[in-house]
Amino acid sequence: MLAHLPILQVIVPLLAAPTCLILRKPSLVWLFTLLASASAFVISILLLQQVMAEGTLIYELGGWSAPWGIEYRIDKLNAFLALIISGVSTVVLLAAHTSLEKEIPQDRQTLFYILYLLSLTGMLGIVTTGDAFNVFVFLEISSLSAYALIALGKDRRALWASFQYLIMGTIGATFILIGIGLMYQMTGTLNMADLASRLPEVPQSRTLFTAYAFFIVGVCLKLALFPLHLWLPNAYAYAPSIVTAFFAATSTKVAIYLLIRFTFSVFGVEFSFSVLPLETLFLALGLLGIFVASTTAIYQNNVKHVFAYSSVAQIGYMIVGFSMATSAGLTATLLHLFNHALMKSALFLALGAVVYRIGSAELNDFRGLGRQMPLTMTAIVIGGLSLIGIPLTVGFVSKWVLVVAAIENGWWPVAALILLGSLLAVVYVWRIVETAYFKTPEPGRKPVKEAPITFLAPVWILVSANIYFGIDTRLSVEVAQAAAESLFGVSP
Amino acid sequence: MFAVVMLSGIYGLLSASFFVVMDAVDVAFTEASVGAGISTLLMLTAVAMTGRTEHVTRHKPYLAFAVVFVTGCLLIYGTLDMPYFGSPDAPSHQHVAPRYINDSMQETGMPNMVTSVLASYRGFDTFGEVTVIFTAGIGVLALLSVVRGRESDAEIETLNDSMHEQYLILRIVIKMLIPFILLYAFYVQFHGDFGPGGGFQAGVIFASAIILYVMLFGLGTARRVINQSFIQILSAIGVLIYGCVGLVSILNGGSFLDYSVLSDDALAGQHLGILLIELGVGCTVASVMIIIFFKFAERNEYIQSKNGKST
């Protein structure tokens, strides 16, 4: 069975989804979903171990060898991503049953879990596959289910947010498809490793340039790079809390994975960074993203909006690391990807707990919550500190690595700007702390109780992960470094 | 909006004939049944729900125009260096394709090589596509479900009955046609390995027969014929059939979706595997199409009955 782990990673949640439709009863379906997600998590741990020990795993689907059939190719990078995705998904699901009680009507809960599983499947499928067209297929699964999940939000505005995301996401997916199609036309293959070996032989042509440009723009739409981020804040703010916690930690990360995979493994560093002015372009957009989005976050009145804009800013940090095109820079990107997933899932899940109790995420309603929901608010504070990058939290580790990478690269001003960006994070996190701890609640409002244990447990698992991986950085840094180095060493 | 939908249907039909001219019969078949057939139908339902005219917007879409213009230019720029149309030296004809063309008959035993690529060589992509369709069905189900009360049900039915009494000739013709359409769907389903066709097209054709029935006999009657939860479970079963074929091949010692190990003889195994997965595809596609249409139509009815009450 061990040999089949790569495919089981994807088909366990995939086959669990239609089975849920047959099970029907929401609480049963919840347990089943949790089980499926947890087994995906276990599989990803096993896979990562195997990859770290033995190197790249190859799995040929349908028994056809690579360029003719589809193959799964698991290296350090995608094993790492699969671990993040399935891990966050499992922890978030722990709280799902409680949270859905108040956010989604009973008769739609089963469908919610099915969509959740499908979206998990889609992301895992994108990450594990070694075939360019297969990426597109799973991208469709994950995005279709994402649109539906976001539209399930209680607020009517969720529909509009989802529609915006649908339009932007579909444009992105079409661009990606055009890119893949043109690549096929120039090389006659869809397999990534095969593409990587055949693309350099193709003379530098306009078609290839167009293929790359379309692909990159499509991916950037999906990952909400700064000027293309407009769909993200509303989608995150109005989706059901569970969905936000899951997506904030995973969906943009998958797009970043695609960007890294195609830039480094498929097209190769030389093509990507010499033909196009990618370095400066991404650096500029990344930095702009950090500042504009952080500043916007300061002026938001809905806490979900604050953290959503902060997500756009954090993506900026990852893109800055990416734009360095060095192994150290890429390590920083991957590390921040992991750490940001931990921070944002903790923060949004804690927000979910607040929404569960007070029914809104408006900053004004946070007044006095510091005393009434001490554990939840402490979690938000620790998550916020991590977002700023205070030592002993994961945020510090990734910022540190990023700054060091920038300095190594001789980019002093960039390093300074990164630190300056953190100061903006101090401002928006402080606004929340101030409101929650130092303002008295409106006189007429009934005091609320602490969130139920089903919420607190997963929130605190994530918060302790934030602290644990901030102190013991062996796992995250080691894997991120190994993955980055493998991308710069031999192409897979 | 009505014109837009109709034009896009015509576009679908035209491009289907393009594909026929270029000898891509399978693609043409899909385009004709999906592009020109069912998607036009679904769009018409959507138009019936939302209204035929667009709201007048105040701002001028200059920015959008610029973006579209730049994209278009880039696409044309990209075509400049493309290999010539139909040139045998083009990379896409040189690398992977020859094996499909020369060896697929020996390796899978399928005379129709499109089916062999679709269902066997790249069977996992097809599995993904089926899941996409399933996702779409679930999405529509999650978003458009209406809770129906008993009495409003009866009310709607009477409304429908009066509406559908009128088209007598249509009803008789359709009644005669439906068995043939269904039969044709089954032919396409099971003949996919030899001629153009397969689960996707068959599913769509099957669904369109049901949709025709619904359109002419009303939702109430159709609801008595077709059990909703059965259809929903059928859509799940389609995906499960496909997946289980894969799992069985794992258990038989092959890799996922390796049909050769399904039977002692590799070719017979391929044949069996492809037959089963096509069946799964057909199930899911047909039932998802029916689900989507039903949900749209129910929503429509719901809105109409609400309007009826308020006036």
Shape of chain B: globular
Low-confidence residue ranges of chain B: none
The separation of the N and C termini of chain A measures 24 Å
- Bin the helical content of chain B: over 70%
The helicity of chain A comes to: over 70%
What is the percentage of strand-forming residues of chain A? under 5%
What is the C-alpha radius of gyration of chain A, as a whole number of Å?
Answer: 21 Å
Low-confidence stretches of chain A: none
* Range of strand content of chain B: under 5%
Structure annotation, total helices of chain B? 12
> How far apart are the first and last residues' alpha carbons of chain B, in Å?
26 Å
Number of strands of chain A: 2
Q: Can you give the mean pLDDT of chain A? A: 87
Describe this protein's structure:
- The complex is a heterodimer of chains A (492) and B (311).
- Chain A has helices at 5-23, 26-54, 76-103, 106-128, 132-151, 157-187, 192-198, 206-223, 231-238, 241-266, 268-275, 278-298, 303-323, 327-358, 369-372, 374-388, 394-408, 412-438, 453-471, 474-488, and strands at residues 57-60, 71-74.
- Chain A is mostly helical.
- Chain A has a domain at 277-484.
- In chain A, strands 1-2 form a two-stranded antiparallel ribbon.
- In chain A, helix 16 (374-388) packs parallel to helix 19.
- Chain B is mainly alpha-helical and 311 residues long.
- Chain B has two domains: 1-82, no CATH class; 115-310.
- Helix content of chain B is 79%, strand content 0%.
- The longest helix of chain B is centred in the last third of the chain and has 45 residues, at 266-310.
- The model of chain B has no long low-confidence stretch (mean pLDDT 80).
- At the A-B interface, helix 1, helix 4, helix 5, helix 6 and helix 8 of A face helix 3, helix 4, helix 5, helix 7 and helix 11 of B.
Please summarize what this structure is.
Chain A has helices at 5-23, 26-54, 76-103, 106-128, 132-151, 157-187, 192-198, 206-223, 231-238, 241-266, 268-275, 278-298, 303-323, 327-358, 369-372, 374-388, 394-408, 412-438, 453-471, 474-488; strands at residues 57-60, 71-74. By secondary structure, chain A is mainly α.
